[in-house]
Hints:
The structure is a single chain. The protein is an alpha/beta fold. The protein has 16 helices and twelve strands. The strands form three sheets. The protein has an eight-stranded parallel beta barrel, surrounded by seven helices. Strands 1-12 form a two-stranded antiparallel sheet. The structure holds flavin mononucleotide. The site of flavin mononucleotide has 27 residues, from helix 2, strand 7 and helix 14.
Amino acid sequence: MRMARAAATAPIDVPANMTAPMAVDPCAAPTPPTSAMRPEGAEQRDPRSKSRHLDVCLTEPVDYAKSAGFDAWDFVNDAMSEVSLEHVDLSTTLAGRSMRAPLMIAPMTGGTPEGLALNRRLAAAAQHFGLAMGVGSQRVALERPELANYFHVRDLAPDIPLFANFGAGQLARGWGAAEARRAVAMIGADAIHIHFNAVQEAIQGGDRDFRAIAARLTALCRSLEGDGIPVFAREVGFGMSGDAARRLRACGVAGVDCAGAGGTSWAKVEAFCAVTPQRRALGLTFGEWGTPTARCIVDIRRVLPDVEIIATGGLRSGVDLAKAIALGADVGAMARPMLQRAHEGEAALHAFIESVLAELRVCLFGAGATNLVALRGRLMPAGSGPV
Ligand SMILES: Cc1cc2nc3c(=O)[nH]c(=O)nc-3n(C[C@H](O)[C@H](O)[C@H](O)COP(=O)(O)O)c2cc1C
């Protein structure tokens, strides 16, 4: 049986004017959609489905059994490191904005009071440490604009690279530049993530027809280029091959998030959320589907030497983050580890991020790299194999 979720996270500062004026209960059954807000033929997204995802991700064993692939690599230790630990430079940029460290809080939530509270805690931490952050799919608030306030974090994080988000399923069904502009304006974002999640949708019984996607993504990228809004394509955790990334780049995306296998399995999450035994079985069958994150990074970097790569999926420490960078990612991102700590409270979240950044710093120090560029390639296959 599912564990009861903690009644509430530790108190989170949510300005009164963000909740008080909302006359709607975001967990109530959805109001009838208007066709202007809803892609052709689509069911409107029920905000409660996002709450179920949060619940399951906080209480159920939804990790892949297989590894994200970082354990297949070791850093080459530099026995004569000429680096000062205090002076290693972790700074970088993403989507044209600077960051103090190459770590992103991956898109997860928003659209409900609970999602807002978690996002605001995450955003405040991102601002404090100089990280990037994405909000979860804004589909609910694009369909029901009265929920837009439940995505607001910019006031707490004025300086971070902030990413808007909606799904390729909506794009394939008819959404485009107008919805993307609304999503970006809703949160004051610097860029937008379009998430690709075919296998998750198949298990959910959601969007199952992506035939129009390349043409629609191309039109979106062209249109937003004029506004200076970079479009990033991301998987949600099943991985992205070099070939898929090349085709996405040909559509005009500015960057990709390979979001590979080895961390949170979205097939397992959907199995726990399933309302029928058939869907649960389907989710469990595909629980290990996907390409490990380390492999995705290497494949994508090989075919796209210059594109910005975010690596999500199974990063659980600063050492994993360092390996993702050394393999070719520009920024590493974490979802469930951030969610768990944010749910515990601000102190737990800050302690976790501090430990990740401390581990990353030691990797640079031990590998003899003064900055992230110098860290590239300082790896060898793990194990003692033949020399
Ligand atoms: C509770 C939760 C909700 C998520 N919702 C979204 C979403 O709305 N949009 C999206 O692009 N990815 C979403 N993700 C996927 C994550 O961004 C990430 O790609 C995935 O969980 C793998 O990272 P991890 O192993 O660090 O958890 C969500 C993840 C979690 C844990």
